[in-house]
């Protein structure tokens, strides 16, 4: 029972992965403000109260949506299996299409894929947050499946398994850390998830319903992972969700267990399930994968990047260099002139489009050891410029760079996938280094930050030592668990202290 377009007047025409129209509630609160407010430490009471109202508004917005959950709880198990089968079948079709020579379905080039990673960052960087409020119910067996999901989202405290850490690293690798200028719509899902984190006591069925929807592995996850790998981008964040969200033993199954375990035995189970459905539908609000992918416009993205740089760039160029009779500072002093500036750079031969960017003087100013503008643009911005100059591939990947570095390999070679590149890197390095044994790493202070000596007097370790001291000074299990759960909150769990707290918590709940 998917949403149909005429159910929601004025909504965008692209259905999202829920099959619904992507939109949040435009009520009293801005999602973006709510998102950043909820990421503050020691939340003021007024923000907690506001987030409850925000959540109520979003839930109200779901009332005009229908969803594909079965009406009967007994039918959800087979519904999960059927949904998983359907996704497997659709993915097989996708692979067959690709093997028959079809172009990528999602990403026209690498900058398109990076644009997507930035656009979904507000959601990915609070991954798992909706379940945080349940950690305080650590001694209630009804919530053990759901708490287990939360712990797995946090990688059980292992840094390279923590989903937020993995995504942060992915963004940093490609210069995609600047995403806070995204529109309010991009923050709807994140703000909902952070609000659910604060109000599990008041919105328990809604938390369970949201989780049930979120943990069903969608087709877009598989296609995204496949195409990121193809473009030389690490797909781990996406592939690990497909393995842990699987219908047999993974999060999809645990999400159903969590629902069944929590159903009231005395109170009204029908009313509880009605609220679960409302929570499920929260997944359908905000921007979605398809909308983000379709919103990419390489030309607009380039102009936006140059427009942003012009704020400083209009002061720093010498008057020696002129293009079409105007100095670079004159061109950059008016951002509306950037398209004309680019056209003139092309006309005067500074940029040779639809060719290897190495043939363009403009590109050589940006990239290379002796490039005069080296460091002005970050990796993402350079990728956009590179793809804009290189143009559309004439055939499958035929005009794309063959590795992740700009222009270091012959233009027109096929690009190595991320996995192939990693294998080559590993083969090159494995004879040079000794891999420390896992047994050498402690359970609690399992890792030290890079550059740390591991010495307790090391500044990097002071916080962890203080946490250990605090924990040992506490006299009851309740006090210990309270301290641990406070460090496992969405803004804290990926920090050194948060990871250590998660490891201890995981051990304690068994
Ligand atoms: Fe996750």
UniProtKB/TrEMBL annotation:
One of its GO terms (molecular function) is oxidoreductase activity. The keyword Zinc does not apply. It is an enzyme of class 1 (oxidoreductase). It comes from the Bacteria. Keywords: Oxidoreductase. Its EC number is 1.-.-.-. InterPro entries: Haem_Oase-like_multi-hlx. Transmembrane segments: none annotated. This is Iron-containing redox enzyme family protein.
């Amino acid at each position: 029972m998917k949403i149909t377009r005429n159910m929601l007047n004025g909504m965008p025409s692209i259905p999202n992965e829920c099959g619904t129209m992507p939109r949040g509630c435009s009520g009293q609160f801005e999602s973006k403000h709510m998102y950043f407010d909820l990421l503050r430490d020691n939340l003021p009471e007024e923000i907690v109260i506001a987030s409850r109202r925000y959540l109520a508004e979003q839930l109200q917005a779901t009332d005009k949506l229908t969803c594909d959950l079965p009406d009967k709880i007994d039918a959800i198990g087979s519904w999960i299996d059927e949904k998983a089968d359907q996704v497997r079948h659709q993915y097989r079709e996708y692979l067959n299409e690709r093997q028959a020579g079809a172009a990528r379905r999602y990403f026209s080039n690498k900058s398109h894929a990076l644009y997507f990673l930035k656009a979904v960052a507000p959601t990915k960087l609070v991954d798992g947050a909706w379940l945080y409020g349940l950690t305080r119910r650590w001694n209630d067996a009804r919530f053990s499946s759901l708490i287990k999901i939360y712990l797995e989202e946090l990688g059980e405290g292992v840094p390279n398994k923590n989903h937020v850490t993995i995504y942060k690293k992915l963004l940093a690798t490609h210069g995609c850390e600047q995403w806070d200028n995204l529109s309010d719509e991009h923050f709807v899902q994140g703000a909902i998830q952070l609000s659910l984190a604060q109000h599990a006591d008041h919105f328990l069925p809604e938390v369970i319903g949201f989780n049930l929807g979120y943990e069903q592995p969608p087709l877009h996850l598989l296609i995204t992972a496949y195409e990121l790998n193809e473009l030389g981008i690490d797909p781990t964040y996406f592939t690990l969700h497909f393995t842990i969200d699987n219908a047999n033993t993974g999060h999809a199954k645990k999400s159903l267990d969590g629902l069944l375990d929590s159903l009231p035995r005395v109170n009204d189970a029908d009313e509880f399930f009605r609220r679960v459905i409302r929570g499920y539908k929260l997944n359908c609000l905000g921007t979605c994968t398809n909308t983000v992918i379709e919103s990419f416009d390489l030309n607009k993205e380039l102009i936006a990047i140059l427009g942003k740089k012009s704020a400083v760039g209009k002061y720093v160029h010498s008057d020696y260099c002129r293009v079409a009779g105007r100095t670079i500072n004159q061109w950059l002093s008016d951002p509306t002139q950037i398209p004309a500036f680019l056209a003139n750079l092309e006309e005067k031969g500074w940029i040779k489009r639809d060719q290897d960017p190495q043939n363009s003087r403009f590109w050589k100013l940006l990239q290379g050891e002796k490039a005069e503008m080296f460091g002005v643009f970050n990796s993402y911005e350079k990728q956009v410029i590179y793809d804009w100059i290189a143009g559309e591939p004439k055939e499958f990947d035929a005009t794309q760079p063959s590795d992740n570095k700009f222009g270091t390999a012959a233009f027109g070679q096929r690009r190595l996938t991320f996995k192939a590149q990693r294998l080559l890197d590993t083969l090159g390095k494995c004879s040079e280094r000794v891999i420390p044994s896992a047994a050498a790493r402690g359970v609690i202070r399992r890792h030290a930050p890079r550059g740390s000596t591991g010495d307790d007097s090391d500044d990097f370790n002071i916080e962890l030592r203080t946490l250990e001291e605090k924990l040992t000074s506490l006299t009851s299990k309740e006090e210990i668990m309270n301290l641990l759960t406070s460090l496992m909150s969405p803004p804290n769990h990926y920090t050194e202290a948060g990871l250590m707290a998660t490891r201890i918590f995981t051990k304690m709940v068994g």
